Amino acid sequence: MAGPQDTPPLRNRRPGRNSPRIPQSDLDDDHTVIHPTGPRARSQIEQLLDTDEASAVLVALLTLLAFALRFYKINHPDQVVFDEVHFGKFASHYIKREYYFDVHPPLAKLLYGLAGWFVGFDGDFKFENIGDSYTEAHVPYVGMRALPAILGSMTVPIVYAIMKESGYSSIIAAFSACLVLFDNAHIAQSRLILLDAPLIFFMTLTMYSYIKFRKYRYLEFSPEWWMWLIATGTFMACTWASKVNGILTVVAIGIAVLIDLWDILDIKKGHSMEYFWKHFMARAAALIALPIILYLSFFWVHLAVLTNSGPGDSFMSPAFQETLRNNEMLLNSQEVRYYDTLTIRHKDTRVFLHSHPERYPLKYDDGRISSQGQQVTGYGHDDSNNLWQVIPTKALPETGRGRIVRHEDVVQLLHVNTQTLLLTHDVASPTMPTNEEFTTWPKDDHSRYNDTLFHLRLVDSHPGAALRTKSGLFKLIHVPTKVAMWTFPGQLPDWAFKQQEVNGKKEVNDKTAVWFADEIVASEDGEVKSVEEMGHKEPKQMNFFKKFGELQLLMLQHNAGLTASHPYASGPFNWPFLISGISFWTQTEGQKQIYLIGNLIGWWTCVVGLSVFIGILGADMLARRRGIVPFPDEVCNRLWNSTGFFLVVWAVHYLPFFLMGRQLFLHHYLPSHLASALIAGAVLQFILSETINFPISIRGPHTRPKPRQYADVGMKGPIIVGVFALAMFALYVYLAPLTYGTPGLTGEQVNSKRLLSTWTLHFAAKTTDAAP
Amino acid sequence: MLVALTGLLAGYDGSFEFKSGEVYPDTVPYVAMRVMMAMFGVALVPLGWYTAVELGLSWRACHLVALMVLCDVGWLCISRFILLDSMLLFFTFTTVFCLSKFHNQQYQSFSFDWWLWLAATGVSIGCVTSVKWVGLFVTALVGLYTIEDLWDKFGDLKMSVRDQCRHWGARIACLIVLPILVYMASFKIHFLILNHSGPGDAQMSSLFQANLVGNNFASSPLEIAFGSRVTLKNMGYGGGLLHSHVQTYPVGSNQQQVTCYHYKDENNDWMILPRWDEPAYDPNNPMRYLADGDVIRLGHVSTTRNLHSHPIPAPVTKLNNEVSCYGNSTIGDNHDYWVVEVVDDLHAGGKDHVNRIHSLTTRLRFRHLALGCYLRAANAILPQWGFKQVEVSCDKENNPKDTHTYWNVENHYNDRLPPGEARFYKSPFLRDFWHLNVAMMTSNNALIPDPDKEDILASKPFDWPFLRLGLRMCGWGDSQTKYYLLGTPVIWWGGATSLILAVASLVIYLMRMQRRYVDMEPREWDHYLYVGKIAFLGWFLHFFPFMIMGRVTYIHHYLPTLYFAVLMLAHMIDHFVFSSRRFTEQTKWITFGLCCFTIVFCFWWWKGVAFGIDGPINDHWGLKWRKTWNIYEP
Question: Where are the domains positioned within chain B?
């Protein structure tokens, strides 16, 4: 599927029945297909543009423009925008060397960390909220934003080079490059500290390298051949390591390679099996082994840099956490024994499990009745009412490890100050009729013994695991009624001093019903080893592959778990048509906003290009099935193998999103959009003239010489592309205030920029809509 | 939940159950019904055998298929109860059978037999889809087969254009038109028989309900007036009734919740009241009928609060305004005003012809007077605090075509008005048909597994091919007769393995062909490919969609899929042993005997789970072959 080939892809073609049909055209150049003529027979403009000098000028112009458009006012806004919240923060963690956790592989974030370090960012700024000011915190954010802007700008000349190397006219290559160059979505995405610019840059480089590699296929195992093969593998690994979506690039290249290998295997080519295996091994080494090694080494760097404890600790297993310096768990994790007195905290809201002698009111405001038992709440501060003692329900040995509290034990919890046992029962909780009320019951009254039993279930644990402070997350499941102790950030009324409600939740698998033992205050015999006594601990060692395996698994799980709804999430079907964008940033003062939206002309052109291309392929297939050859083999090969490769890239980067359950955003389409820009270029070439540059692959020693052909789109090409580029530029300028977030817009201006009614812009002028 | 599911999906079954109830009204009906179901199960065995014959398998493989169909405890178990699955299985089997019959007629195009089997395939497709929508998967298999067939014919340059057209026409008539007719006919029967009001009502459009016997809508007064007590039905697909209850929003304004609810309840009742600045409604005043453009308040009858909206983001659809209930019969503000906008009326026609608003037939929209937003309920589900009811919000955008902003009056009570007559409320069959289908689809998709809740009965598609989980079909007490839905392990495992083997062998054969090794004659290759394609694609089409479906899946969803795995297993054994030239007759006999023995032995070992196990389960030894099966009590 990549680069032209000798054999047409359809084997049941019936040659000789019909001579190739050439569409009637008044351009003489069309006949070059049957009677290849020299380069001089082309139109003047084509000859001029095809020269290296003209190409260089075009590339220089495009690159210069790309840099200008992406660096324009890059210091604006001087505030945290959209996902800079995450990726900026991660960069600061690298500088601080604090461990963090994220669903995306580390390469792009490492680069940002490096860029930040390079421009002197000290990592103190934490990128807490969208809209936090950079200038006030003296963050050298321009230097960090420069990295994606450079990568995003460099993408443009690579797009040009891909088209040029694939044998399309220079002007067509410029057309594809313009589709990316003037695209507001690509620009907005490349000006901010986000992962997409590196992803797209590396993806484009991967495609370019693979095309170069295919062009050297007649010089197999030559140094250039190896170089481009290895380059493909390297950039593929970089794409994959930049963002999870990069794995799709690997799949796209994989498909192309499989098709290529299948052709080599074909006995009609006359190759031996040894020859095939040689090719197979070369690709396996460069495109499987090498990327995996690189991918692993990026993680190695990631883990080698992040050696200190940080916000990502709590995601990891205890064993992993103990490898991090100053980790809380490393410092003071202890096994809990029966009759230890301890404090218990809720994992998500960090409140202590608390009780006090006050009782629930008999009647709530909504008329429901309580048990009038002692209140059990969640309390955020240290207090002697937070102390609970673990009481066994089984016989314990006198001493030794049998007294340790373990996974799946049934326990009672004694509230120390009031000497009452924790209890829950089938009475509705104060604020949630669906959940059970938690209360306590006097220790000596055995009438409700069963209701005081709780199953201690450690999260992700194995039988016999001990409960440890700090590290051991657990759920407390009530034995008779099977509810889990749970709390949420909801305040109780004044009668409970506005403390947080604790209740029993029926969904025991809820991930928020997780608690941990915070600290052992006293043990049975009163001795407690303080943290200081235990001394300073050095981080433990752990095998890199184990660490990597754990991290990778967690990343996959979290990625699939990102299903919460988001107001700007959109379905994949909307993307190519630009039905809706994403609001990145707003500033009420001056009514400024950044709204991610593409250049409507460019995107719709791409959609038209795609459909025309699929139509051409369909027509070609049907026609050949009926024994008609609609266009000459060379053109057909170009369409199927070169443009077809672009189509595979597009489809592979787009269709899988339909199967994904996670939140999806418009910017997930950008890699596919780039591929569709390539297709649009190829289609324009095909429409303008049925000529191609052929052959474009480098001749090998045994290659049969083929008559040369030259593409010629005549004068129409430059005119159409010029007009088109102007139109795109005009629309780009029109939408620029949304892309750059400056200047501010009045309500009417916002309304006029809203080209589709589905775009949800802020500050729209509307008489009926009082602003919230 | 399963019963509800069947009730909803049971276009065909609904009528069937009803009929069998009629036939045996005085005897014990369930035995008769179970016998009917079991008959379908019995018919599977000969069908399996004949299909194998038609697929051109050797006689040993045919016997093996029949034996496996006979001895699978999963199929046996499901056929013994009044479930849709045995009928679904039966029609799946007939479809494959007809398809293979038709395939064998391919060289006698347009002969009587050719037409017969083509038409039979079509009818069979119609039946299978009207039993359960899973039938669409086997339809897809027939579709793919037909497309490939036509593609071959399209490439046949010797065939005349007229013949091409006839081939296309025949297939369109028999495989598209005919099944649709069968499908619609089954619905027609369904509507004719089920003309009594039942629990499924609220899912349907108001008009449809009005035509059900025993429903009181038709006696509602026709014209709406101020002071009428009404329920408002959202006209979007799967829309419910406008509802409010005392619970408040935990987010946003913290005022009383307003939702859409699918069941009848007195919290759905609203009173049409005049504006605050007009004199309060007085039953002794002359009648004031509601008309287009009137500004009204909607008072919630049981809490007396007023339907209210304000510029606070709605809890789920954050871009819209929140709708709540606020104040009481004396307290309120101008955010309680709604403008009635008529869209059209079923009888009177367009907006211009509507003078007064009629119950059931007039489509309305409610515009918030102060904010200009429209009352909308678009199937966004509220979290647990809203009892998973549908969110009601106020859409700032005016989309006149959005049916989720359309409402109609469903129940209407007004003592001062004369009751209406049923003839005002006729609804056309096609619209009912469409509505029921859409309602089925939305409720089907709404069976989304609750991530917080683990359903012990549900299982994931990946658990099925290798039979990781079974399903307890009834209570598990010691004194009960226990039924456990589980397949015969060797058949399931063998089937799944054969699929992997098939893919592997295909890849190897293709690679060898690419290197021009000749493994078999073209005829053999075609046969290998044809049976493999039917079995693999059939399996894939019945399996893969469940993986991407969001809804809850159960192990019995795999039962139709299993048939294709069984065919593949027989095909693979046939291909590698029974029809192979490398093995002697004796080896084939031994293999055949071994296979038969294993299957029968496993069946015998497991027969209890299908025929029912009496006594404490833990007394029955050796049934638990995989540790994930929850067959024993811990």
Answer: 206-426, 455-634
